[in-house]
Design brief:
Length: 287
C-alpha cells in the first residue's frame, strides 16, 4: 500500500517551517487523500515552539478555511498535538495527539528530545543518575495522561530514546525497560488510543527507525493495539518521509492493517497493509 495521509503536521503556526496552505499543496502533489494539522498546543513555558495562546483562534480559522477551500480534492482535519503540560482544551479540534515532551525534575523541566546535556544534568540531579528511574517516570506520565484523557492518538511513544544513543541512559533490551513500556502500553490500550508510527526523527536524522521501536510495536500488536502513521512533519518537503518503509516495518511486527485519517464521515479509516492503492479502499471504522 501507499500511505496517502499524514495525521501529525506542524506549520508556521508553531515551530514548523512551512505555511499551512503550502503544506496542503505539497500533500496534493503527493496524491494525499487526507491531511491532519496538529500544531503544538499553547502552553505557559517553552513558548517559541507552541501556538501562542492569543493566536490559537487564528490557527483554527485558517485550517477550517483551507478544509473548505480544498474540500473537493482532500480531506483536511484540524487537530492539535497537546503536550501533557499544555494549558489547552481539546474540544475545538477534530482530534488530538497526546505527547509527553518534558520530564519534570524538581524545578527543572528538560525536554526529553531537547539538549542531551540538559537532560543528563537533570537525570543526575533528580534521579540519582539512574536513566531507568527517569524512563520509568516518563512512561508513568504517559500512562497517567492516557488514563485521564483517553487520547485518540499517542505521539512518538518512546521519544525518550532520542537522546539515549548520546547519553546511554538505559538499555532498550533490559527487561526492566520493557516492563515500564508494557505498563504504559496497557494504560494506552485501555484508553482505546492509537499509537502513531512516527518517522519525524528519521526525517531529522536523529534516529534510524520510527518511534516506537520494533520491539514496542511487536508488544503493542500482541495486545491488539491499532496504529496510524505520521511524519511529525515540520517541513513539507518531508511530509511522507520514509512512508515507503513503514508497511514492511508494520508487517514485520505482525500488523496487517493501519488506520489513516478518513475521507468520509468517520475520523479514521482502517486500511489493509496489502491494499493496492488509496485509503478510501478500506472500510470506514470508528476507533
Ligand atoms: Zn511531539
Ligand atoms: Zn509533533
Amino acid at each position: 500500500m501507499r500511505i496517502l495521509s499524514n495525521c501529525h503536521t506542524h506549520t508556521t503556526h508553531c515551530d514548523g517551517k512551512t505555511p499551512a496552505e503550502d503544506t496542503v499543496l505539497a500533500a496534493l502533489g503527493k496524491g494525499f487523500r487526507s491531511l491532519g494539522f496538529t500544531s503544538h498546543a499553547p502552553q505557559h513555558f517553552d513558548l517559541p515552539y507552541a501556538v501562542r495562546p492569543d493566536r490559537e483562534g487564528d490557527y483554527i480559522r485558517e485550517i477550517r478555511a483551507l478544509a473548505d477551500k480544498y474540500r473537493s480534492r482532500i480531506t483536511i482535519r484540524c487537530g492539535i498535538e497537546r503536550d501533557l503540560f499544555s494549558c489547552a482544551d481539546v474540544y475545538p479540534y477534530d482530534y488530538f495527539i497526546a505527547s509527553v515532551h518534558y520530564l519534570p525534575c524538581g524545578a527543572e523541566m528538560p525536554a526529553v528530545d531537547g539538549s542531551p546535556e540538559c537532560l543528563a544534568e537533570a537525570v543526575r540531579g533528580f534521579y540519582g543518575g539512574s536513566g531507568l528511574r527517569a524512563v520509568r517516570a516518563y512512561y508513568s506520565l504517559l500512562a497517567a495522561y492516557a488514563r485521564a484523557w483517553r487520547p485518540p492518538v499517542i505521539g512518538h511513544f518512546d521519544l525518550i530514546k532520542k537522546n539515549n544513543a548520546a547519553l546511554g541512559l538505559f538499555d532498550e533490551n533490559d527487561p526492566a525497560y520493557m516492563e515500564a513500556v508494557f505498563e504504559a502500553l496497557k494504560a494506552i490500550r485501555e484508553a482505546g488510543s492509537l499509537l502513531e508510527v512516527n518517522t519525524g526523527g528519521m526525517a531529522r536524522n536523529v534516529v534510524s527507525e520510527p518511534y516506537p521501536s520494533a520491539a514496542v510495536l511487536r508488544m503493542w500488536r500482541g495486545m491488539g493495539g491499532g496504529v496510524t502513521v505520521s511524519s511529525d512533519c515540520h517541513d513539507a518537503r518531508f511530509l511522507d518521509y520514509a512512508f515507503d518503509q513503514v508497511p514492511d516495518i508494520l508487517s514485520g511486527a505482525g500488523f496487517d492493517r493501519v488506520f489513516v485519517l478518513g475521507t468520509g464521515k468517520t475520523l479514521w479509516e482502517e486500511v489493509p497493509l496489502d491494499a493496492p492503492a488509496a485509503p478510501s479502499s478500506g472500510a470506514e471504522q470508528s476507533y
